[in-house]
Amino acid sequence: MKLSARNVLQGKIVEIVKGATTAHVKIDVGGTTITASITNEAVDDLKLENGMTASAVIKASDVMIGVA
């Protein structure tokens, strides 16, 4: 599969937490955890499971920075 997104980070799924309609999927990318919010249907369609290799594809028009 080819994507136009340039930020593709490969890692392993470490946790999937399903809610009423949305799931939070955590991917370990070299010691950093990235969390994606996707539909439960997408989790089922992709057959996502803990320990599986997956990619976090990041496509954003804005990057925000916050300080305390």
From TrEMBL:
One of its Pfam families is TOBE
Keywords of the record, alphabetical order, are: Molybdenum
Q: Which InterPro entries match?
A: Mo/tungstate-bd_C_term_dom, Mop_domain, Transp-assoc_OB_typ1
Q: Where is the Mop domain?
A: 2-67
In Gene Ontology terms, what is a biological process of this protein? molybdate ion transport
Q: Is the keyword Heme assigned to this protein?
A: no
Q: Which NCBIfam families does the entry mention?
A: Mop
Q: What protein name applies here?
A: Transporter
| Species assigned in the record | Hyphomicrobium nitrativorans NL23
Question: Taxonomic lineage per UniProt?
Answer: Bacteria, Pseudomonadati, Pseudomonadota, Alphaproteobacteria, Hyphomicrobiales
